[in-house]
Amino acid sequence: MRPYTILCILFLLALSGSLFPCTILYSAQGEYILGGNNEDYNDFYTYMWIYPAEDDKLGWVKFSYGSGFPQGGINEEGLFWDAASAPYLDMPYSIENKELYDGPLMQKVIEECGSIQEAQAVFEQYYCSDQFRAQYLIGDSSGISMIVEGDDTLINNGNYQVLTNFNLNHPELGGYPCWRYDTAMEMFESGEHDLYLMGFILSATHQEGSYPTLYSNIYDLLNRQIYLFDNHNFNEYILIDLMEELEKGYNVYHISAQFSSISSRYPEYEAVINTTTLNIQWEGRQDSSYELQYSLDPEFEDYESILVDRRFNNLSEQIMYFPVLGGLLLIGSYGLLKRKSLISFLLIFLIAFLLFSCSSKDDTVNEDHLGSYLITLENLEPGNIYYWRLFAQRDGSVFTSQTTIFAFSISER
Q: Does the pLDDT at position 346 exceed 90?
């Protein structure tokens, strides 16, 4: 038995007991053509693979787990897909009229096709074993998408399409009604289709509990860009330029290792502040470096930038070290007054050592250890709205993450 066949059997057996929730989106309206997905499961070892073009195969990016079985991705032509589990569905037409493809069929599609028409041609010739309990939403950069559901393909007749974990043609098989599907449809019907709406829908439909949302993507199909989110934290993302990554060659990245887990921000979004001095506060991983940008311009064409020295801005370290250093300074000063030069020298040496340890502490910190950070902004002007965001670089990561843009206003006096 071939390795892929064994993998498919294990995959189908895993799905047989329950359906793991996922939400997949496509939108084509105005200047935006977007794909999106929440990947919900309980395997926290999630990865991103970069495959450059070779041997008549298109370059593409794959997202999956340690097994490497392709869950979703995008190619250099702007064709994206993601898969969702679904109730078992017979495929008599495919079995009778198509060739069983011994491999991940969506990998063949993403390596060879640049449009929905080309993808349709592949599915007219082949089917694969995982289609009995899985379905795909596929969208291209021209504004066309389709859902592959067993023997059927459902072409998008509007400007958006949503897929969760029930068969649209056979909802009676299970998984329906689905609150995530209903929520996404309602939000698409009432909102302006752009990057923000896509992010809001993914946030509104994310899962927690036993099968949480492990990572999420927003694909900008026209610009070949990917907005990657980790662990349903929609305030921090990595912007990936697909074409730049393909030029770097083959790579594999552990998704969570690229993020700094930024949270607990102050002030709250659109807060009104009654003083011209403000403390910006957040939590994040201690093995990350941070840059704060703030501006009167929401587009940040002109802004002020502050690089965060973790030694002095990690509040937890301040609390631990500063009282100790203060006590040693008092003892050292007493030693100088009493002319006990050796004692004073040793204490000053110890203070310098602790300062160095404080500054280098992050090099060995546990990767899950979060710290609290603070930056003070002074001389803010009353009556103005300020915008701010954070950039973070985690030790060992090749990517820089960033937060969404936050705003606060200074009240008139």
A: no
